[in-house]
Design goal:
By secondary structure, this protein is of the alpha/beta class. It has a domain at about 180-315: ATPase, nucleotide binding domain (Nucleotidyltransferase, domain 5), CATH 3.30.420. Helices cover about 40% and strands about 25% of the residues. It has helices at about 1-5, 45-50, 55-65, 100-115, 145-155, 165-180, 215-225, 230-240, 250-275, 300-305, 335-340, 345-350, and strands spanning about 10-15, 20-25, 30-40, 70, 75-80, 85-95, 120-130, 135-145, 160-165, 185-190, 195-200, 205-210, 285-290, 310. A hairpin with a 3-residue loop joins β1 and β2.
């Protein structure tokens, strides 16, 4: 009975990050956006709400739903996206004969590789590939406190949680549908304050990594190197970036140190995937997403640095905003995660 009830209910996506909350509803059959909106948050207050008893998240979810939605949200059933950096995800292989004791194997894997006590985590797993003698298992874990506080905030705001997942899983879902994401792909998701890196293969996230460098870091680097205000630095970043221009030498000098750190972390994720996860599937492309992807020349930078075809993902060619006003071009990238959350087939949650 619950299955039939929920399967017929539309799903909306709600992306909670350290710098903002986004909401979106999509008719996935037509890829038609029914409603969307966002609200900016203060990272310190988000941290307090995720780890303590602050009502900051509840208050801002309510404000977003009441005042900042363009279009309509057809349901209160919500898929919640949580910051990938706050989760622990690993993919590992086991003999097929170990399936009967899979839960025990997952807990051993978590105990070995996650640096906080297993008792403080919610742990979930999924078999993402079956071969004759081998299973590939994706494990995700997250702090119980953070999940409980997210769910409590969403519920208090009048929404009904149906699913909670790391933001990168939602990005992978959207790119699989819109950007040849069925190819073995490395995703570099550059947010305002951090960068998440993942390998996407066969529609599933296989490996994740990340570091505390984001689009805001680029702005600060430019302001410091060129001696301009943060506002001017942001304009230079989104208008000139790494492209040729009168300030190209100084811009490159400002941006390269942080970009090189992202490249180093990306190489680590690629190496892990190549050595431990896939002997037969070679990575074929790199897709840059997130608010930091709006810097001209960034796709070419990754192409040259990693000797791999790289480009900025643009799923907007498939998403149709219909009669709704589209987000301004410089803000579209912030909606990629929530679009992935909103495109979850309701039936798949309850099967």
């Amino acid at each position: 009975m619950a299955k039939l009830f929920y399967r017929d209910k539309p799903i909306i996506g709600l992306d909670i990050s350290s710098t903002g909350i986004k909401v979106m509803a999509i008719d996935a059959k037509r890829w038609l956006v029914l409603g969307y909106g966002s609200i900016d948050l203060e990272p310190v207050k988000v941290k307090e709400a995720l780890e303590g008893t602050s009502t900051y998240l509840v208050d801002n979810i309510k404000s977003l739903l009441q005042d900042k939605v363009v279009g309509v949200l057809p349901s209160n059933h919500v898929v919640i996206g949580v910051p990938t950096a706050r989760t622990f995800s690993r993919t590992f292989t086991l003999p097929s004969s170990a399936e009967k004791t899979l839960q025990d194997a997952v807990e051993i894997e978590a105990d070995q590789y996650i640096p906080i006590p297993v008792a403080t985590l919610y742990i979930d797993h999924e078999i993402i590939e079956r071969k004759k003698d081998e299973l590939t298992v994706l494990m995700s874990a997250m702090s119980r406190v953070i999940i409980d506080n997210c769910v409590a905030a969403v519920t208090s705001a009048g929404l009904q949680p149906a699913l909670l997942e790391p933001g990168m899983n939602a990005v992978g879902r959207l790119l699989t549908a819109t950007e040849d994401g069925q190819l073995p792909t490395i995703i570099v998701d550059i947010g305002p304050a951090s960068t998440d890196i993942a390998v996407l293969e066969g529609g599933s996230i296989r490996v994740t990594g990340g570091l505390a460098i984001g689009g805001n870091t680029f702005t600060l680097d430019i302001a410091k190197k060129l001696g301009v205000t943060l506002e001017n630095a942001h304009q230079l970043k989104v208008l000139s970036g790494l492209n040729a221009g009168p300030r190209q030498e100084k811009m490159n000098a400002a941006l390269t140190p942080s970009l090189e750190r992202i490249v180093v972390e990306t190489r680590k994720v690629i190496r892990y995937y190549n050595e431990r996860m896939s002997e037969e599937h070679k990575l074929e492309q790199l897709l840059v997403v997130g608010s930091g992807s709006n810097m001209p020349g960034i796709g070419e930078y990754f192409t040259n640095a990693l000797i791999m075809p790289a480009r900025v993902a643009s799923p907007w060619q498939k998403l149709d905003f219909g009669k709704l006003p589209e987000p301004a071009k410089q803000f579209r990238a912030r909606y990629i995660t929530v679009a992935g959350l909103a495109s979850v087939p309701p039936g798949s949650i309850w099967k």
